[in-house]
Structure formats: structure tokens, C-alpha cells
Amino acid sequence: MASIIQALPSEVVHLITAGEVIDSFAAVVRELVENSLDAGATRITVYLWPHQWRVRVTDNGRGMDLEDLKIAATAHSTSKISTCADLWKIQSLGFRGEALHSLTTLAELEILSRSSVSSFSSNKQDNGWRIVYGYEGEPTHIEPTAIAPGTVVNVSNLFSNWIVRRQGLPNVVQQMKAVQSSIHQIALCHPHVAWQVWQNDRLWFKLSPATTVGQILAQIIPQVRPTDFQELTLELSPQDSASKTSNAPLHLLVGLPDRCHRHRPDWVRFAVNGRMVKSQELEQTIMRAFYRTLPRDRYPVCFLHLKISPDQIDWNRNPAKTEIYLKDIGYWQEQISGAIEQALRINPGTIKEAVHTTRVSKLLKAAEENGGYKVKNFRQHDENVTQHLLKAKGQINNTYIVAEHPGGVWLVEQHIVHERILYEQLCDSWQLIPVQPAVILYQLSSAQVSQLQHIGLDIEPFGEQLWAVRTIPSMLRDREDCAEAILELSWGGDLRTAQVSVACRTAIRNGTPLDMGEMQALLDQWQRTRNPHTCPHGRPIYLSLQEPALARFFRRSWVIGKSHGI
Ligand code: ADP
Ligand code: MG
Questions:
Q1: What is the pTM of this model?
Q2: Which residue, 127, 141, 455, 509, shows the most beta carbons closer than 10 Å to its own?
Q3: Tens-place pLDDT, residues 401-429
């Protein structure tokens, strides 16, 4: 009887291992683009012809000389690591030396490259080389070619020998969406790169190089501006002194919760050493840091980029290199929560421009239009730094506090700001105190009773359909509506929900006159809160009119004459 167990032919092995990683247009693009980035490219252009199963990636990176080009697509050939020990020092995006080789088994591969290094050496090479590769990655055709330093990779007839894979792929629109999303994510990790992406010989989208991640994200998310973000870079001290790295930069971008949030958690992203990765633990850390700053069912915009010593990471555990395993996760979680908290605070170091740019522009535009004149190019300056100096100046309609600060004028909504202050106080010290006489409630359901017990209240039957509540949240102590407030708490939700509702109930109502001292006290306390942008329901707390905007609005730059006091 013939043996049933057989060694797989090598081409099948190739197909299987390659297929694990390169299973879509997006994966092809990702691999090629990562090679370009590893080659130091600052300009990357991607061409896609999805119906022809064809992709081209060109870059201005350091290119390859003829010798390297000849072996680039053979199995496990890489310039990035050479020993096992190197696996712990991976700084590049690629390292397995598999991508190009896999492509030769899944598609037709051709590379044109000219080394930027060799043109300076003694055997000066003014031309590049074009190589067509065979099924095993061996060169089948070599010829000189005239190109600029850099590399052009042509992949055609993708998955032609694997029709099942082609059939298993989603439709072209979805595949292209995946490509776009993949490029967006890579671009965020490498903001200095200029991108162009063409589809069917038409420019599809491009991204201009930027100095901040926010400038990239503002090109990606519609209706969002760089000023809607707060970015900060922290140098973290190493968690164990044995670690050879002296510091680990953490770059953080957060969407200010009063200016941008999403209906899906699609922009809670996390990258390590230039690569977008997944880490459920860290994503949860981010979500927790934004707790009670956003409207219901909205998600933050947050991009976190860690540069950490490669010996803290085990890339090799996942072939797609997308899941990250960090040593000492608790340390990172703590650092990240602290960084987000810092970014969300109001202080001169972190708030550059405190303008809800879009909405203020609209407000001022509307005012202008009513006034019957127009200003061209209304734009905010972002150079002036808000000082940490808010001075109460007055109250409007018993609702808004007018605050002066060196950068302009702020309107602060008194109820909402107080709600934020009280909520944070409650979270920090949720105190239940005994009350005499007890608060008597009528006709509670058993669910309501157990809800009150659940959040810690001392409650017991007090006769027919009556209950006595003997401890209450301290903030409700002197309130006439105490019974009502407790009833509200009995309707469900966790402790946090209870704290939000107590804060809302006890916060100063709109319509209440305040004196200057009270307003100043509110402003001072507010500036010390952890999440000053929004109330615990996610409503914005303040509107700021920045001096440059006001100066523009009032045409202070016009030279009219000295007598006008300009
Ligand atoms: P890896 O990226 O894991 O090293 P690849 O198969 O993707 O493996 O690439 C093999 C080698 O080819 C790389 O190590 C690099 O030296 C070279 N290479 C690939 N693409 C480029 C490029 N765009 N520019 C310069 N060199 C490249
Ligand atoms: Mg690679």
C-alpha cells in the first residue's frame, strides 16, 4: 500500500507560508511600502490596478545595487538581520526576508532599482538595473535601466496561480478601502513621508509630509483640523535599571473631547517602533482614560506611538506582526494613562490654541454676514499659547461666566463646568454619611432597593411600602431634593452613573446669579480638573475667542489713522 503521508512539494510550502501573510492587495502594499520605509524613503507612490491584479510601488529610498537586486527575492534573504541575536534588536519593519520571495510565488515580480550609495563610490553607477524574477525568486532577466535613485517594484497577475484566494477576496471597493486604511495607518507612524496613491491611472489620494501626527490625521479624517488635537512627547524612564535603553519616547495624540470623537473606536490606535499594532490591553487603557469625557456611545480619537527597546518586544510570535506582546504591560498602562491625563489638562504647556476652530469660525462668519461685510481667509493663528490665568470678569444671563485670559476671552457655562468639578470630586472621594432623620422613600421595587444597596446606601424596610435610607452621599446632605435625588439613583447604573447624576443635580443651576468670588473659585477649581474639556455627559464646557481671531474680526491690522487708536 502506498504511503499516505507525503512531504509537501516545496512550492506548496511556499504558498502556504506566503499565503499566511500576503493574502490581499492591502498586504502586498503593506509589505512593499514597509520595504520602502526601511530603505529610508521620504516619497512613496503606490499605483493600483485592481482589476488587472497589478500593483506598483516606487520610492526614493537608498535602492539596491546589482548584487543585492539579484538575491533580493530568494528565500530568506534580507539585509536587515543576520543572526538569531539580531531578532531581539529589530529596528526595521521587515526582517524575515520573505515578502519579495513570497511575491514571486504568488505573482509576477519585477524590480527596478538604483542604489543611491553606489553613485558616490569609486565604481560610480549612473544607471539602475531591472530584474525579472522566476518562481523561486531567481533572476530570469537582467538589464540596465535608466532610473532615478530609488526602487520601483512591479507586481502583476497577483494570485493568478491561486484562484481560490482571488475568489475568497471581498469586492474591489472593499479591497481598496483596506489598502487605503493600511496606508493611512502606516503614514501616521511615519509622518515625514510624502504619499501618492493612484488607482487605475488616476490620482486617488495623497498625503503631504508633516511635522506632527495631527497634521497627517487632519488629512485623513474629514472635518477635523490639526488644532482639534493635543500632541505630546514624553521621555519615559526605563522600568528596570538593567535595561540598556536610557529612555523610551512615547508620542501621544489625543482628540480633544470637546472637539472630536467618533461613532466607532476606529481611531483608537497604537503603534510601536513605526508599526501599527493591536493590543487589547492598551486599547482598554486608552478607553478608560477617556471615560466620562465623551457623549454617550462616542469614542475618542487617540494615537499612541511608543518607541521602545526591541528587547522589550517579541515580534516573532505573530506572522503578520500585528499583535504586540510587551513585557511588563502594567508599567506601560500606567504611563499611558498618565500621559493621556496630562494631554487632556488645561495648562500652558499642553494647550496651544483653545479655539473650537470650526464652530467659532462659523459663529464669527455668521456675525460677519449679518453685518454685511466679509473677510477673506479667516484663519486662526496657532502660535499663541494660552496662559494658565483665567480671570472672572462677569456673568451673562446668569448662565455664562466671562473669563479673561492673556490669549483672549472665554465663555464658560456655569452649570456644566461645576458638574465637571463635582464629578471629579465625587470620583476621588465618594463619601456616604449617616442622616438623621432617615430619608423615607415610598413604593420602591425590589430592583430599586437592591440598586441603592449596590451603590452602598444603607436602606431598610420601614413599614408598609416604606423604606428608610440611613446613609446618603455627603453632597446631598443639605439638599431639599435629597429624596428625589436618591430616587433617581435607584433607577440603575453603576457607581459612576450615580456620581454623574449626583454631580448634575448638585451643580449650580443656570439662572443662578454668581458673584465675582464664586465665579473665580469655579474657574480655579476647573483648571485643576483632569478632564476640563467636557462634562461627564460629553458636553463642551467652554468657548474661547482667541485674540488673533478677534483682532482679525475687528480688522485691527487696518491702517486707518492714528486717531482711531490702532
Ligand atoms: P525583509 O524586508 O524582511 O528584509 P523582503 O523580502 O521584503 O524582506 O526584502 C528583501 C530585501 O530586499 C530587503 O532586506 C532589502 O535589503 C531589499 N529591498 C526590498 N525592497 C527594497 C526597497 N524598496 N529599497 C531598497 N531595498 C529593498
Ligand atoms: Mg520586507
A1: 0.73
A2: 455
A3: 999 988 888 899 999 999 999 999 888 87
